[in-house]
Design brief:
By secondary structure, the protein is an alpha+beta fold. Helix content is 56%, strand content 15%. Helix 12 packs across helix 14 and helix 22 runs antiparallel to helix 23 (829-1027). The protein is extended and about 185 Å long. The model is unreliable at 38-46, 95-101, 369-408, 660-700 and 1186-1199 (pLDDT under 50).
Amino acid sequence: MPPTVPISKSSGRIWLEKPSVSSDGLLSTFVFPAPGPSPSSSPPAEAVASPSHRFLKSAFALGSRASFSAGDSRGSLWTFSPPSNAFRRVCAPSSSGTSTRTLGPATALCYRPPSEQTVLAGHANGSVTRTVAGERTEFRSAVHGSPIRCLDSSAGLVLSLSQDKAVVWRDDGEKLSVARSMPGDFRAGRIVSAAGRRGQGAGSGKDVCVLFADSSVACYDADCFAMTRQYVLPATEGDAGLTTFDVSGDGRLLCSAGANAMLYLWDMQSDVLLLIAEMPPSAASVVHVEYSKTPNPAGFTPLFVLGDDGRILCLDFSPAGCTVLYEIASPSEALTHFSLDKPGRYLAATTSTGALRLYDLAVAAETANVLARSTLDYDRLNPATAKNANRWEPLYRLARLDPNETRLNTRKLRTLLDSYGEYPAKYRLLSWRFLLQLPENHDAFALLANKEVHPAFGGLNDRYPLKNQRVFKKLQSVLSALAHWSPVFGEAEFVPALAYPFVSLFQVDDLAAFETVMAVLLHWGGTWLTTFPHPPIPVLNTIEQIIHAHDPKLAAHLVSTGVSSQTYAWSMLRSVFTEVLNKSEWLRLWDHLFTNAHDPSLLLCAVAAYSIYNRNAIIPASNKTEIEPFFHRQNPINMSDFLLLMYELRRKTPTSVLPRPGEGLLEESGSSSAPSKKQTEEGREAEESGNVLGSVLSSPDTPWPIPRGMYPAFHGYPKFVVDFQIAERARLAAEEGEIRRKRRLLEALSERARGLATEEEQWQAQQQILVQAEETRRRTAEEAEKKRLEEERRLDDVSRERRLSQIEAMEEAALKAMQSSSNLRSAESKRIDDDLLRIRQKSEYVLKQRMEEEALLNLENQASQRVRQLQMGRSEEEKSRELRAELKAKEDKMALDDKMLLDRLKVEDEERRLSAEVERAKREKMVQMEAAMKTQQEINEKFVTAAAEREAKLAEVERERRLRHLAEDENRRKAEEIAQIEKQAEIEKKMEVADMESLISDARAWRQQQAKERMGMVEEERRRYILESEVREKRLEELSKLSRRREYEKAMVDQQQDEISKTLEEEKTMQQALLTMEQDRVRDRLHELRLGLVEEERKQKSDFQNMLQGAEERIVAEERRRFVQLREELRGKSADHEREIMQEHERRMVALQTEQKDEMDRIKEMIRKKVQLQEASGVASKYDGGGGAGGGAAGAGGTDDIMTRAKATLARQGK
């Protein structure tokens, strides 16, 4: 359902979600919500329109963005942009110092071209305002003293029109200035293109057209305001009361309308009234007309007309006629005003409740309800005498007049028919509608036509293939409506052949075709279906009696050759004579039958008259095979003689043969029941007064004419037979649909299984690729890790060797220092003996810590120096490469600059050389020109006199040539127009042929597919039939018992019929008919029993099929469940495997990092211990090698103990 958008704030989004479009094209409805709860408390679809705050007018922008503006009853101006999904109030009532009390609501709106932001508005106080980007500027003028009715803008001109004055404004973009003010009594106005005006000269190319109160339209030149043309209706139209008009975009056609519900079409090039059309009966007047700004794909410009009934009609209103394309209406409220966008896609309309409705015309053109009566009646005027022509009342309008006002009644039509033998072709269909008193029940027909195609006629194209698909669709629509009205017409095989001539004759008027076929079936064929599915035996017996009464020899010959009335009479009745008469003959016959509709038996006399008329061709035939084709082909016939013979047979046929007025044709010709005297007198009086309704004498069960409002129910058929056939067809269709559904289901399951298998294969392939990629990545990482470890080991070895060499150097230096110290102490031993113990105790700890720290610092310093040297080496290499690249680039640039400099110097030298040559040539040319000018001046002086004389002669020749060219151009233009029209017609014809061929090929392919499917179904049924043969034989035995019982009942019936024949010998014909009917009923009962048996068999088949279907579904479900379970297991195993691999990889990486860290710590500790051991050994050697006899000997024991304990400690730590 299209959303209802409440306008409760100054701006916002139009749709909160993608909007849906209704079948009539409605996109959205905008309303001002009534005072009450907050708009957020209820959904937009439940918004109730405010009775005091309403939308009044709307206007679309002139661009292609489909944005439009609307004015409300409070003087505000709103803009809506569906492409941007936004709306906002661009101007409030109090903006720019104005108010609703002074300006009033906007009574007219338009956009200023070419801007899409400038909106002009006319208000109730006579003022004109311009709104740009939310700023309103008011232009007050004393010229308008009443509300503005119309506002239009084009090419710097603005036309504002009120009831008493029309004002033309000059618009320079900043302000409006009055250019012209014209007093008068006006109704509407437009600024139109002067392209269609004869004798158009230079200027703005615009005309100002205004509609006066006397229904005349005058056009004034926008530059000099001189009247250029005027359109006045003929005096025969009286006071038309025109109130609105519009001009097509090309400026060629003008359409006006008003209070008399008539549309007037003018040719603005020839100033001729071309066409007059009347609105449907529901519209008493026209409110607004507007041409679409853009022609549709068919090449014509649609006209949109709003009537006072609140409906908008989209018309193809052209000199060729007036056709309703579609209508736009609201079921709950009337439309009061509308406007169109330039591309012709959207329509905005205000309603009687104050809502603003937005329609999508593309959707409305495809799916909206088309008027059942799609062609408006119109009168074509002769352009040569259009201005003075006297227009007669159309014939169809007389059918709605009262009897006292009727100028052309049934008696006058009969007189016209007797004089000319037929009705004029132009008014034949209108005469038929008048004679049949068709009710034109639009609503009832719409209910039937809007339903889906009846199943009985879904395959109509197979039985009745037509080349013209448009006629076929209309025939299918009418037949489907008949079947929905009464189901028997979907089962009777003769209905399509009966309806086709009337559908093809009425063409676009589906309603008239439907009601005409209904009238024929009810009034002339009301008893044809009482013996359905058999031919109407009583009716055929009546025809046989008519022939026997007037031509016994022909009747005897037909009986002797075995030709029954079902051969010659039923074939003509079921085809309503289309097989034996051509179109013109058929139309003449039905002119007479419809004119004498009060006597339906005249149709039976026509059948008998055709046989008697051709007796000379029938009697020589000796057998049935020679006679039967005669009644299925068109034979030469004189219609005048045939019609006279028909009337003569009707006049001379005894009343005992023909059914009396008021009797059904099913009643026997000899029945004693006769119409009452009162009924006969009423019929005679109605016929004398020319009232068709009162002159019709029909059976009480068959209403005549068709009543207005709703169509009558039809029950003249055996309901149980029709119901059984409908049920059988529905059952077969259901079985076929079930088989197709199962086949589609199996195909879908197979396709789904294949898709799942393909997805599984793809998933497995992807997993395999991922596993391979992971293995490759692992191998690459392991190789990189091995290389890195090898590099680290190599670097550690190098570092260890360097550090050990440094330690050795340090040891050598220390030994040298200790040797020199030893020598010094030996020389000064006496002086330091007292301090030795103190120094040794103090320096034990300091030396130990200091030497360890120095050793580590030296190692770190050397390592950092080596790293800095490596980095500096790499940096130097990078800088050298960059310098070499920069140097190379500079050298290339310098070479290029040198080359460019040389080229520029060469170009400058060449330019200077060429400039010198040009200057020299110029000077030479100037000298030559001066000489030539002197010579030319002398020549001009010599020929000036001759030229004057020659121009005088040529002027006369030129005048004659221009006249000839004007005549040739006019002839060529007319020829081009004719050629263009022919070319367009040829193109349309080719397109129609191509469409028909495409539809036929599609239908042929569909039939082949259906035949293939049905053959498969038949083969399957045959196999099942073999399996069920034993059950069928048993049921056949039961059927034989029932048959013997029915035969006994038949014998009893025969005995009863014999007793009746003995007592009523004068009614033998009637007894034979009743006996035949009883036998038919017995056969029908037997047939019903057989069908019941078949139904039981098919029911068992259906149960068996359901059992198979359940088994198939269970198998498929089990396979699907197993497949899903297997897939989930595989996915779970794969995920677990990947997770285990990742965890194992992480554990290995952590262990490897731990091992590397421990190894580094162990190496560092070993180095530290080794350094400590070496330092301790150095200190010990220092003390061991120096000192005197006392000092050295005294300290030897303590030093050895210290070294021993240090080595033991280091050994334990090393372990």
